[in-house]
Amino acid sequence: MDQGQKGNIPFDEDNYTHNIHKDNERSLDRRSFMKLMVGAAGVFAVSTLPWGAIAAKELAGFSNKKYTAAKITDVSDLKVGEAMEFAYPGKHDSALLIRLGEDEFKAYQNACTHLKCPVFWSKEQGEMVCPCHHGVFDPKTGAPTAGPPRRPLPEIILEREQGVILATGVKRYET
Amino acid sequence: MKRSYRGVLLLSFVLFLNIVCTQQTVNAYYYEKYETVLLFCVLNLILFPLAFWIYKRERDVK
Predict the structure, then answer these.
(1) Does CATH place domain A70-170 in 3.40.30.10?
(2) CB < 8 Å to A51, chain B
(3) For B4, which of A77, A148, A155, B47 is 20 to 30 Å away at the CA?
């Protein structure tokens, strides 16, 4: 190292930590690393608490949710092969009603089970398609047939009364 | 001084289990398998004292 350079600006160093003089300040020793790991384990433990709390709440008696029936549409307003969006059970739970045949209706909550993008009905392909990552769902069962989703779409239970389609509940996954 | 990386390796393994348990918790939640959620949640909580115990044991070793 050229002694004449000492004290000159800019410093003859290739980093921006030349003002750190404390011993071991820049080194992460084994013990601090292990402390870090213990801290991370704590963070992971805390992060599962909300999930556990909600699960416990569900198990404690709300497992049979009460749904109120809601009118979706008139049968005459939906042609065969067409689909329409609605919201059920809450007004922010978007869902998709598809008329597959003259008397065949299917409805699913259409938040993709991959990353919650809205799933669309593709009439040409006869499939439900998620545009975000090209997830494809079978309109007859709601099961994923292609792309990243692994979990079927939650199906909405339908009833037909005097030319009106009613939503009466959301099917639970079979366990 | 002879180095021992046993603690580091054990804690890495604990952290790996933490990741697995968290992932399983969230998956089970979306599949509405709430018993499984509670199981993995408790496992994840137990892993923290375990990690702390491993750390303490490695620290106190002379």
Answers:
(1) no
(2) 25-26, 29, 37, 41
(3) B47
